Amino acid sequence: MCAAITTDRFALRRLRVDDAPTITNLVNDPKIYRMVARIPPHQTVAQSAEWISKHPARRDRNAAHIFAIEQDGELIGIVGAERDELQLPFEIGYWLAPASWGKGIMTEAAGALIQWLRDRGERGFVSGYLADNPASGRVLEKLQFMKADRRPIFCMGRGERVDHFDMARVG
Predict the structure, then answer these.
(1) What is the tens place of the pLDDT at every residue in 64-91?
(2) Assigned domain for 136 exists
(3) Where residue 109 sits, what CATH number does that domain have?
(4) Could you say which of 93, 109, 142, 150 is the most buried, measured as most Cβ atoms within 10 Å of its Cβ?
């Protein structure tokens, strides 16, 4: 199992427990937690560390592959693939520090992760975005995802149901 995936501009590496303070600091920005369904507002370092500590067991079961996006030695975001059952497609999820938005970083990072998964034999992927976050939708469209459904989902960061587009990619 690889420890890192590299692109021309950055590395995707496995998370470490010592990343918890940086992750916590970043995700506590409302520009992030309000746009990602599963990040609570006011996340603590302990919550981040607990989340990271679950990754090795899930990785060993081929249920989750979560990577830090590291540029010039600095963690600037997260990209990952998770699933509850081995027969299900991986769900691609991500977030990026606002200072790094608009530079094509997430398209490159998620594309590298998907290619790594494809090289391991995976072919189906799902993802989605909150309807008021069209930039995330553009990332997925560039990665050949297609809209599959529109439905409300609960967003922890907002504490309410929010309109969401489900997307899928085959191949």
Answers:
(1) 999 999 999 999 999 999 999 999 999 9
(2) no
(3) 3.40.630.30
(4) 109
DSSP per-residue letters across 5-53: EE-SS-EEEE--GGGHHHHHHHHTSHHHHTTSTT--TT--HHHHHHHHH
83 belongs to a structural domain = yes
Indicate the DSSP class of residue 103. S
Q: What 3-state DSSP class applies to 105?
A: helix
Q: What are phi and psi of 36, to 5 degrees?
A: -125, 120
* Report field, pTM of the whole predicted structure over 0.85: yes
Amino acid at 151: R
- Give strand pairing partners of 169: 125
Range of the domain at 41: 8-123
Q: From CA 74, how far away is CA 158, in angstroms rounded?
A: 28
**Residue 91 included in any domain:** yes
Sign of the alpha-carbon torsion through 58, 161, 100, 128: positive
